[in-house]
Amino acid sequence: MREIKERAQRSLQKKAPLGPDLDLEAFSREGGAWEYDPDYQQFAPEERRHLLKAGVELTDQEHAGTFLQADSRVVHCLARQAGVEVLPITEALKRHEWLADHLWNLVPVDADKYTAQAELALDNGYFIRALPGVKVAEPVEACLYLRTDRFSQHVHNVVIVEPGAHLHIITGCTAHPRVRSGLHIGVSEFYVRREASLTFTMIHNWAEEIHVRPRTGVLVEEGGRYISNYILLKPVKTVQMYPTVALAGEGAVARLQSIFIAHPGSELDVGGQVILKAAHSRAEVIARSLSTGGRCVSRGHLVGLVPEVKAHLECRGLILAPKGVIYAIPELEGQAAGVDMSHEAAVGRIAQEEIEYLMARGLDEEEAVSTIVRGFLSVKIEGLPPILEEELEEAIKESGKGL
Amino acid sequence: MEMLSVQDLWVSIEGREVLKGINLTIPVGETHILFGKNGSGKSTLLMTIMGFSRYRVEQGKIFFKGQEITELPTHERARLGLGLAFQRPPTIRGVKTGDILRACAGDRVAYQALAAAYDFTPFLEREVNYGFSGGEIKRSELLQLLAQDPDMVLLDEPESGVDLESLQVVGDIIGKLLQKDRRRPHRDKSGLIITHTGFILDYLNADTGYIMLDGRLLCSGHPREILEHIKKYGYVECEKCGR
């Protein structure tokens, strides 16, 4: 423990290799003293609507479990299905002695000053676990919520899907409608055990002056399956994230899908790395980025360490405004004969020919652009709450208007 | 009554003059055929009638059903009843063919039934024109037109790249679009069709043919006679004659 603290101490000023550097002094550590809320009573209708847009439904119904952290306070936490554990990480560490070994195991504590903050000034975070063989039909809903302006939220999450279990987590990360600025640091470590399956859907809905620094590491064991869906449709100041997935067991599978829109003033640096360490492991990384005036770096790195692995990377970007920037960086790294890895990257604007083709079918220009953008963003994401489908549709219509 | 009237039409593409004073009138219920060498301006005429931005009208007017459409945006021309089947339509990644067919059909027809009638159902889930064969592209284009149900059909080489088996289907759809089974006075659809081979003439009732040469229309006459002439002598005589 002391060694971890020391490593964190030494990294307090360490800049992250990617993304704009932030002055942590510019943020506050004084969050609201929010009360525990078993019935979601403290949320005004305006706030509820806003949370819903991040996929947070504020109900225990139709969820196997729920977790809500506002600033530093866990205000709601419940597991409703047998075989599912949902706890604040601080509480889980008290209950399970073995859990400490799972922290800073997949994400180095000294990665940068953000991971150091998460260790030295932790607020809380969630611990979600599906016990062996438990097939959790309904999703677990987690929400990390910035409810105080300028607050710097530091969370550490651990998810363990034990052998043969199936789990779907929907995480909505968002801010109060009147919060303009802030920082969210989220360390996440996911363990997908043998023959287990984890679907992790994360929806970001922040505000124009909020900075976001997720730090995620995932371990997938033999025959395990990890599906990650990331959706960012609304303005944010900066997001920099680069999750690393290790496919460590034979036949492990990862699929990372992301849809993100860079609005004017937004700076996104989003991507991920999958390391294929075991035979017959497979990975697919699919990114669809759209710039309506913001800057967006879309990364992807596949590393094949052994023969008999197969992976594909797809970075496609559409620039819909004159000042938009999309920088796609696909990387393939084969370190053994017999790896099968490919990539497809394309950045551009919508071809006039495509718009006019649809106009010849009677669609006006705006409808034609929306149809093309909708198609571009049509990445199949299972179990998305209906409100998010509506949000996506609204974003599509809005994005076409700037043309 | 006239379906389409093109008057002294001059068109340029990126500063290059392509059409040089086209005059053309197509009455209601008639189908006219355009012959001509590659690069003579046939596709440009169809694209200009449809109103694509790349084709700049320098002079002249286009009337459709009595209304001037020279400056009208493409989608309004489509809504007025003009329909075009592209020779080489673009691929649109992510957009499903079924969605386009549904948009074309509106409330007029059940697009699924239409697709089923022409063995096209498996293509509805596929991305628009992505990985389609020549015949599949034509079938897709023509089914979109059937769904649109236009009064005036513009077809750009509908038989090109189509194998003999698919040609029958393509021909049948065109016959339906242009009301082949009706007697002339009862036809209210018109067509303007580009063909090199003339195969398509077996599937429709063509009234008049033209040869286009260097952006001008020459030699109007019966389409089959013109085709026979081209088969025998090529376009050399037309170039010499220049009428």
UniProtKB/TrEMBL annotation, chain B:
* Residue span(s) of domain ABC transporter: 4-239
- State the Gene Ontology terms under molecular function: ATP binding; ATP hydrolysis activity
**Stored SMART domains:** AAA (SM00382)
Q: Which InterPro entries match?
A: AAA+_ATPase, ABC_transporter-like_ATP-bd, FeS-cluster_ATPase_SufC, P-loop_NTPase
List keywords of the entry alphabetically. ATP-binding, Nucleotide-binding
Question: Does Zinc appear among the keywords?
Answer: no
Short name of any one Pfam family annotated for the protein: ABC_tran
Enumerate the SUPFAM superfamilies for this protein: P-loop containing nucleoside triphosphate hydrolases (SSF52540)
Q: Which family does it belong to?
A: Belongs to the ABC transporter superfamily. Ycf16 family.
Please identify the protein, giving its name as recorded.
ABC transporter ATP-binding protein
